Amino acid sequence: MIDVDISHPGDFDATVLRPIDGLSGSLGAKVYQSLLEAILFLKIKPGSIIRKGDICEQLGVSRSPVTEAIARLSSQGLVDVVPQSGSRVSFLSLPEIREGSFIREALEVAAVERVAQVRTDDQLARLTRSLRLQSLLVEDGDLAGFHQVDEEFHELLLEATGFPRLAQVMNSLSMQISRARYLLLPTPGRVAETVKEHAAIVDAIEKKDPAQATLAMRFHLGQLIHRIAPLETERPELFGQLRPTMQNDKMAL
Fold first, then answer.
1. Does residue 112 lie in a domain region?
2. Are residues 162 and 124 in the same domain?
3. Contact 122/205 with Cβ under 8 angstroms?
4. What is the pLDDT of residues 197-214, one digit of tens each?
5. Which stretch of DSSP H or E encloses residue 81?
6. Whole-structure pTM over 0.90, yes or no?
7. Is the dihedral of CA 142, 213, 225, 72 positive or negative?
8. CA 159: distance to chain centroid?
9. Is residue 119 part of a domain?
10. Does 117 fall in a domain?
């Protein structure tokens, strides 16, 4: 398994950023995608200072698309921008994670209840294929790949409701949740447990059992808060309770 090291926030190494050559969209969108991936996958630690110059040099872009990307990340709660000072990656926030989890549960439990009643054979086949892929990624120890397929699995469930905007709503709410979920993946056995929880949801959908589907989804989603809450005490630096001194460190000029 990949070890997620987030013990010493400070300046981040810009070489962790994914090259933007193969990404789509404007320069600002490409820089955003590269930074977003690094933040969600914890390649950039919570509390890390963001230096625009380092990003420009690493990605081969001017300051304008970097500024655009940081503003977008700030609007999603992943970056804190301090006027006249600079920017840093936001710390994890347990209240925000709880709120996001509450909204997510309301949407996804209702979604699987509906999907269990209206699903098509094709939708069931897509969910089943996703389960098989998840199992392969667990065997390979590919956390980043598993995280992506995990996200896609939940998107498939939302899309299967027939309400196309549900996935968009969820994506706008889930950035802090996505980062917290990735943090938990290295926990021994967690990815295998996640696949079993997903399998229980799909089994209920296959049987067209809405009650069992909602129970399985509630149990699955409940694991996040159950597992992340103790980290606020065990790893306070992730939540900004042991913040590094920033007065002597000029940020993101």
1. yes
2. yes
3. no
4. 999 999 999 999 999 999
5. strand 79-82
6. no
7. positive
8. 19
9. yes
10. yes
